[in-house]
């Protein structure tokens, strides 16, 4: 009976996905070998063809050809495509958000928030199109001008992860397009339908403003399809978002052909809670950062480093809040924790919890599976585990809602614990002590790409550069001066004098 109901629900969700794709103007491909599943029931929404190697190569070729024209279109004119994309995204925000929920399992508000993030980065890119500034430097030679100019780079390959199936694409694509690059996108094989929708909206935007739609190409499939972008010399920049394991494979290959890599890899984000912290504010921020998106954000809070004097009351607040978290179908209003993406995410969570307990950890709450839509859907209660020390399992990123709690007495020890993991994406401190806050942000404080005070580790705005250090890969995307990764720089010296003075006063007569 339950199975029948779940099958019926999957059919309903499949119909919804198809209707959304139609409403977004996406061409539905014929059935193929690539399954599109929904984590809501674990059922199959549809299948579509994976891109064959020769077709992926051809797509790169089309992007390379389109680049030849696109690079000479003035940047503010290129921005028209991005402006139109933002309009289309605004018009279809609800539908695209629902598709994200169907495919990635995000609760409604987070899914729509992800689409809003796409619109935000489009707006940023439109303004940026008039601000691709180069500098002019004083020349040491009379009658000379010394300056830097920025030029389009070429084809940008974008490999993205399942958990931000649309925003990460927009971060890269909106910026790359105004910078004069063309894009070939290989989305996660887990989220091919949202990719189809975005691709179709962008091509429509290009057509609507009279630009070449070939500036964007979509190739679909797993690692073997992504590998075409990794190995192809025509791909000038590979922007790869995903696990450290993936980054370890692709980065050396791109380096070996002297290509550029922008890596946005796994995080293992920590927050320090000091004795002066506002515990009420801290616990609200911690619950969102640790349990939101069912622990499947790169910026999810995974390690809580709490002062011994407040760890007891803080844990009581967290346990109480975790006990009230609604876990279930992310399409339902009021739901806060949706499903894990698939069974292997659940297996990884179980095995991390087992490791933590055998390392002396004490389960505070959560970790159990919740039956929402049958055996093929993987819903869990977010877990909190108190750890005696930062053992191996705590140093790994497990892409699931597990919050490890460590205790400190001395602030230097807290910083050492915080920085004592291989990853370096996001971090936070909760304190009312300005010395501690400033120390956390200083050179000998947090070693992460993102360091926050009195706010959680997740939920970044697009205006700042996003990315992390160490095994997170060092890339920066989205706001600030991240655009520089998508362009090449030329240093130009212009001699407007009748003489030929050499630099460093060298005489060559
Ligand atoms: P994943 O590494 O399994 O896959 C990511 C993408 O890489 C997919 O498109 C996949 O097909 C592709 N891929 C994998 N191996 C490849 C190879 N050898 N060659 C070419 N392509 C390859 O990651 P996932 O499970 O989809 O996502 C979760 C991971 O992504 C987590 O580690 C998370 O922290 C990370 N992530 C990081 C950021 C960030 O900005 N730092 C953002 C989102 C997700």
From TrEMBL:
Pfam families: Aldedh
Domain of life: Bacteria
InterPro entries the UniProt entry points to: Ald_DH/histidinol_DH (IPR016161), Ald_DH_C (IPR016163), Ald_DH_N (IPR016162), Aldehyde_DH_dom (IPR015590), ALDH7A1-like (IPR044638)
Ranges for domain Aldehyde dehydrogenase: 34-489
Annotated GO MF terms: aldehyde dehydrogenase (NAD+) activity
SUPFAM superfamilies hit by this protein: ALDH-like
Keywords, sorted A to Z: NAD, Oxidoreductase
Region forming the signal peptide: none
Keyword NAD: yes
Protein name: Delta-1-piperideine-6-carboxylate dehydrogenase
Organism: Nocardia puris
């Amino acid at each position: 009976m339950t199975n029948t109901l779940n099958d019926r629900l999957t059919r309903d969700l499949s119909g919804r996905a198809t209707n959304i794709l139609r409403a977004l103007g996406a061409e539905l491909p014929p059935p193929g070998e690539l399954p599109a599943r929904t984590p809501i029931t674990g059922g199959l929404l549809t299948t579509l063809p994976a891109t064959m190697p020769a077709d992926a190569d051809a797509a790169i070729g089309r992007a390379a050809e389109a680049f030849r024209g696109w690079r000479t279109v003035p940047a503010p004119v290129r921005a028209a495509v991005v402006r139109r994309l933002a309009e289309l995204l605004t018009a279809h925000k609800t539908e695209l958000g629902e598709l994200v929920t169907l495919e990635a399992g995000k609760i409604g508000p987070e899914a729509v928030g992800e689409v809003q993030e796409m619109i935000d980065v489009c707006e940023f890119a439109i303004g940026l199109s008039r601000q691709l500034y180069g500098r002019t430097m004083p020349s040491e030679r009379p009658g000379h001008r010394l300056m830097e100019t920025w030029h389009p780079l070429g084809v940008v390959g974008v490999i993205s992860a399942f958990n931000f199936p649309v925003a990460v694409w927009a971060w890269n694509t909106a910026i790359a397009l105004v910078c004069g690059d063309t894009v070939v996108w290989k989305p996660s094989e887990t989220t091919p339908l949202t990719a189809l929708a975005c691709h179709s909206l962008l091509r429509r935007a290009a057509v609507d403003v009279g630009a070449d739609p070939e500036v964007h190409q979509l190739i679909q499939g797993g690692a073997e399809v992504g590998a075409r972008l990794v190995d192809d010399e025509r791909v000038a920049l590979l922007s790869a978002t995903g696990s450290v394991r993936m980054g370890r494979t692709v980065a050396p290959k791109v380096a070996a052909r002297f290509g550029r890599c922008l890596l946005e890899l796994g995080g293992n984000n920590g927050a320090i809670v000091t004795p002066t912290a506002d515990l009420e504010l801290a616990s609200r921020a911690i619950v969102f950062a640790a349990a939101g998106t069912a622990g499947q954000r790169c910026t999810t809070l995974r390690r809580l480093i709490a002062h011994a004097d407040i760890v007891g009351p803080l844990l009581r607040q967290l346990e109480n809040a975790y006990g009230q978290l609604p876990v279930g179908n992310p399409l339902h209003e009021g739901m806060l924790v949706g499903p894990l993406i698939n069974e292997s995410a659940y297996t990884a969570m179980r095995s991390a919890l087992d490791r933590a307990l055998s390392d002396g950890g004490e389960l505070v709450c959560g970790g159990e599976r919740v039956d929402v839509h049958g055996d093929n859907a993987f819903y869990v209660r977010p877990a909190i585990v108190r750890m005696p020390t930062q053992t191996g399992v705590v140093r790994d990123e497990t892409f699931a809602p597990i919050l490890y709690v460590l205790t400190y007495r001395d602030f230097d020890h807290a910083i050492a614990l915080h920085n004592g993991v291989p990853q370096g994406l996001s971090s936070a401190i909760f304190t009312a002590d300005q010395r501690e806050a400033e120390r956390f942000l200083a050179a000998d404080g947090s070693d992460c790409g993102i360091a926050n005070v009195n706010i959680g580790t997740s939920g970044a705005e697009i205006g700042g550069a996003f990315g992390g250090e160490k095994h997170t890969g060092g890339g920066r995307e989205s706001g600030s001066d991240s655009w520089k990764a998508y362009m090449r720089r030329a240093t130009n010296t212009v001699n407007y004098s009748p003489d030929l003075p050499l630099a460093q006063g060298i005489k060559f007569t």
